[in-house]
Amino acid sequence: MILESRAYARAALLGNPSDGYHGKTISLNVKNFGAHILLYQTPELSLEPQEQDSNQFKNIYQLQEQLNLTGYHGGIPLLKASIKKFLEYCQAHGITLANKNFTIRYGSNIPRQIGLAGSSAIVIATLRALMQFYEVSIPLETLPNIALSAELDELGINAGLQDRVIQTYEGCVYMDFDKQMLLEKKHGYYEPLELSLLPPLYIAYKTELGKVSGKVLNDIRTRYEKGDVQVISTLDKIAGLADAGKKAILDQDYDALHQLMDQNADFRKDIMHVSDSNLELLEVARRCGASANFTGSGGSVIGMYHGDDMLNMLVKEMRKINARVIKPVLL
């Protein structure tokens, strides 16, 4: 029997990047893009490499392009780390796994390194496949922790729980990563929000802006741990936008939501270097009358638009800066 599992791209609506600093966020699952895992029983345990795992290239320029898009490691380390953390969870909870092996293969059409959580999607999809194969049940609130540990502890990728929470719960989720709650319950407060309450949204992205998000966020981490007052106070403000955004969504106050999304991006600029090409995404969207906030570490923005004319204008103007516009599929 061939088992198949999936996890979808993530777009942070509000609160990012405060999730890694005991903040609050609202995120969406974007089903336009996803990672999938195929797993089937075989005599030996085998991980099948994909194109991005290859060490053979046509020339030096292809090697450069590959590294810019996927970094130095490809997807195999994500599979290995996920399998290791799954086994450790089972061992810690006295779960004996059936004596059987498997072959695992991954694939993804999530544009890499533009803030849509492609790496964590592979991890979540892998954990889901392993749960099916070994008939192990892991609580929803616990699965994001295992996924985060695979990337943070095993691979040294600086990340927070947000991506793994939304890819586990799916839909639209408000998250509060209160420090005391995380210490006591080992998870945050996660509240699904009705998708029907959301306004029309768009996502615009530039694939050439690909970067490793952990590297982008490392400077904030260093300054935060040193007690940088500006970083700490700005992250608190960003977290507060998620609370205000939750109320705006529940009240369907889209004017307020529009302003909050713009504020999130502006606060982010106060503590992070934002490249001219990334700023261009914000500026074009706002000139069209739409709101714009970064979906993640950079390379893509999400925002509200008002009517088909504005959406058409966004498509036209974004095309001029080599950016693609999509309507996120949420259901």
TrEMBL record:
User: Which Pfam family would be a valid example here?
Assistant: GHMP_kinases_C
What is the residue range of the signal peptide feature? none
Instruction: Cite the GHMP kinase C-terminal domain residue spans from the record.
Output: 247-308
In terms of SUPFAM superfamilies, this protein maps to:
GHMP Kinase, C-terminal domain (SSF55060), Ribosomal protein S5 domain 2-like (SSF54211)
Q: Name one GO molecular function term.
A: glucuronokinase activity
Note the InterPro entries from the entry: GHMP_kinase_C_dom (IPR013750), GHMP_kinase_C_sf (IPR036554), GHMP_kinase_N_dom (IPR006204), Glucuronokinase-like (IPR053034), Ribosomal_Su5_D2-typ_SF (IPR020568)
Which intervals hold domain GHMP kinase N-terminal? 84-171
- Which top-rank group of organisms is this from? Bacteria
Could you tell me the keywords of this UniProt record? ATP-binding, Kinase, Nucleotide-binding, Plasmid, Transferase
Protein name listed in UniProt: GHMP kinase
Q: What organism is the protein native to?
A: Rufibacter tibetensis
